[in-house]
Amino acid sequence: MSARHLEIWNVGKSYPARMGEHVIVRAFDLTLAEGEFVSIIGHSGCGKSTVLSIAAGLVEPTSGGVTVGGRQIDGPGPDRGVVFQSPCLLPWLTALDNVRLGVDQVFAHRPRAERIDIARASLGLVGLAGAERKRPAELSAGMRQRVGIARAIALSPKVLLLDEPFGMLDSLTRMELQDVLLGVLTREAKTVLMVTHDVDEALFLSDRVALMTSGPAARLGGLVSVPFERPRDRGAVLDHPDYYALREELIGFLGAAGRRPPEEAASALVHESEVMA
Prior knowledge:
Layout: E1 6-17, E2 20-32, E3 37-41, H1 48-56, E4 63-68, E5 71-72, E6 80-83, H2 95-106, H3 112-125, H4 141-153, E7 159-163, H5 171-187, E8 191-195, H6 199-205, E9 208-212, E10 220-225, H7 234-239, H8 243-256, H9 262-268, H10 272-276
Helix pairs in contact: 2-3, 2-4, 3-4, 4-5
């Protein structure tokens, strides 16, 4: 087991502005061990999704970089499975064929029947056995997101990157999908980095929670270890003596995340009018 399976080191991202540059993220460092689940929480717009997109290879950092399994990434790759807030399924394809899109590319050297079996097995892992021939319009929002998760895990990635994967779902479906994800990870051990704004979700799913400061020039503001045993049981987590203390710690950080030393804020700040010019 590698203690440095996913490394995000000294990552920064900025964009040109009329009076200089608009700094989104500055000197962000985070390391995940193999099989670890880490969530990033922070206020909306602080740069959480920017960090995740850089780890996915979808956005090029201004500084720093990302390594997976000791190899520095230079773009998207099958070693990272990505699940977005919206699964973005092709409406004219069945659930099975949506999953097969990636499988057929990554495992093109394997026989067609084997590729179909891989896609079918992934749908089974997320509870969609029997729904393989349904098109997205025939599926609920939660079922469509299950297809998105199946599509990511079908590629056998080294790392799963989840960007608010349950953010568009109602609370009951959200909890159901959290349990589905934990079940998948129990059977298919993966290293997971997830972006969320939900403190309870972060505590229920994660081994550690990374706290991200508010922007501009957001950075890692701290790490909180989550002591709950795996496999996770929602009732046991809520009854754990540390749960509400940890919850208050995370909420307290979020409440103070925007309060920064004046000199630091002044050096990072670019006025909105300059960014939009």
